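W.,

You were right to be curious about this one. When I first looked at the sequence I had no strong expectations either way, so I just let the prediction run and decided to look at it fresh. Below is the sequence, 288 residues in total, followed by the output.
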Amino acid sequence: MKKYIIAIVSVLFIFTMPFVFTEISASYEEPYNILENPLPWLVLITFLGVLSMLIWLVIAALNKVQSLEDQKNGVSPEESKNNFSIWFKETMHKWTNAKEIDQEEEIILDHNYDGIKELDNSLPPWWVYMFYATIIFAVVYLVRFEVFDGDNQITEYNNAVAEAKASLAKYKETATDMVDASTVTLLTDEKDLSRGKAIFNLNCAACHIADGGGSIGPNLTDEYWILGGGIKNVFTTVSNGGRDGKGMVAWNKILKPIDIAKVSSYIISLQGTTPANPKQPEGEIWKE
C-alpha cells in the first residue's frame, strides 16, 4: 500500500509542478531574472532535482529486478552487466581519469613518509576543462573592460538608476493614484471634492474647523497663506507637514497621494467662502 501511495504522489507531483511553475512565472514581469525573482528558479530546480531522483530510483529498481532475474537464471554478475552500467562507468572514468584500486601500483611515487605512500593522480578532466574556461573568461573580461573600455560597476549602476527613474516617471504619467507635488493638478470633479471633504472632516477639521475658518490651525478661506497657496504648495504642505516644531504633522505616512490631492483640492475650493468664526489672517497674500 505504501508503494502505491508513493507512486501516486510522484505522478501527481510530476504533472502538477509544470502548471505551478507556469502560474508563478506569469505573476512576474521578468520571471527568469534569478537575481530579482529567485522563486521560479527555486521551483524549477526543485522539480528537476526530484525528477532526477525519481528517474534514478526507477533505473536502480530496474537494475535490481534484472539482477534478481539473472541470479534466478544462473547468469554470473559479470555477464549480467547491462549497457547503462557500462556506459555510466566509462563516462565517470573519462571525467575523473581515476585509476582502479588494482592499478594504483602504476602511479605510486617512490618516496614515502613513515610508510605512507603518495599516488601520482592526474587532474580530473572536468577540473581541467573548468580551469580552461576560467582562463577564457579572464581573457574576455580583460579585453572587454580594459582594452575596449566597457562599462564599469559605477557606470552600470548609474545607468540602472537612470533607467529606473525613467520607468518610474513613465509609470507616474499613467498611474491615477501616483501623484506628487510636481504632477498634482487641481481637481474639480464633484466626486473628488466630496472625497476630499470627507478626508478633511475626519483629519483636518479638529484644527481648522469644518468650515475651514481655523482654530489651532490657520484660516483656510482667506487669501493669506503661511507656506504658499495653490494646489502644488498646499499638496506639499499636507504631505510633508507644516513648520518645524509648531506646524501640522506630515500626512504622507497616513494618506495616499491621491487622497492628499483630493483634500488639497477641497481646501482650495474653500477660498472665498464665509466661515462662522474666521480666524485672523496669517502669512502673506498668495497670488498665482
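Here's what jumped out at me. The first helix runs from residue 2 to 26. And, maybe more interesting for your project: Residues 190-285 form a domain with the Cytochrome Bc1 Complex; Chain D, domain 2 fold (CATH 1.10.760.10).

Coffee later to discuss?

I.
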